[in-house]
Amino acid sequence: MENFSAIEGVVALLILSGASFALIGSIGLIRLPDFYMRLHGPAKATTLGVGGVLLASMLFFSTRGDGISLHELLVTLFLFITAPVSAHIVAKAALHIKLPYIERTRGKPWQ
Amino acid sequence: MNRSTPTQPADKRHLQAARSARRWLPHPALSAFMWVLWLLMVNEFSAGHIVLGAILAWLIPFLTHSFWPEATTLRKPLLATRFVLLVLWDIVVANVILALRVLGPMKKLQPAFMTLPLDIKEDFTITLLASTISLTPGTVSADLSADRSALLIHVLHVDDIDASVTELKQRYETPLKEIFECS
Question: Is the pLDDT of residue B85 over 50?
């Protein structure tokens, strides 16, 4: 029984930290000043935010006695493959239509 | 000198065996990956699924192997494991830093576009490097130059552009080059 509640505590901690990283990613969407900087929020919130929630899910379902549950690893894997690719395509499209960036940005994109 | 005569036919047989193994199992790494993928997806380790997964993992690469690009060989699996762990750790650390930056004052942020000259040449390795750079917070790879010699990276906050580029190269490109491309 004691063991069970300790695990629940860890699960709750993981869900909460994952959710706060996702929330901070969304706050970044509102606060950051230009498109390219805003891109950083969603591209990254997925990695640690969803990662935390998935770890919690893995831990929770593995300790309920129905055998270990590992298919959450697949979600992480597919996310790690797709998130950078979509961020790259969105950034490339933004560069293509020459979206403005704030003045203090150093360096210039080529083209 | 004495030994070379008897080993030659054995060598040939060995080569032939390797070639026919290649025909019947064109992508062993892909097959192993698909097998694990199937078992994870059904989330069940029963004998039936192990056999079914093995059949699928062999059949699908075998039927579709003309679509697959030339397989890149993993030269140093140990170093690859270390690289994956390093990236995972970097994601955690840099996420915390990024969270603080997002919540902190906006005026202090120094965004920049920087150009990372590439030493690696193969498409697959470049894709891996670009993805790694995008996954580790603070940097997004935005474009690849037409001649594949440089990556354009947008950084959320950077003090010294040159130092940052050098660090990215050392931290991610050097191990990737060692793992996949013979240097």
Answer: yes
Q: Are the C-beta atoms of residues B164 and B110 closer than 8 Å to each other?
A: no
Provide φ and ψ at B54, rounded to 5°. -65, -40
Helices A72-96 and A51-62: angle between axes, nearest 10 degrees: 170
Residue of B44, B102, B118, B127 to mutate, interface with A, max A Cβ within 10 Å: B102
Answer yes or no: is B3 within a domain: no
Given an 8 Å threshold on Cβ–Cβ distance, is A43 in contact with B141? no
| C-alpha radius of gyration, chain A, whole number | 19
Tell me, yes or no, whether B108 and B142 share the same domain. yes
Q: Do B110 and A104 touch (CB under 8 A)?
A: yes
Q: What is the DSSP letter of B170?
A: I
DSSP reduced 3-state for B118: coil
Average pLDDT of the residues of chain B? 79
Domain assignment of residue B105, given as a range: 77-181
Tell me what the mean pLDDT of segment B108-121 comes to: 84
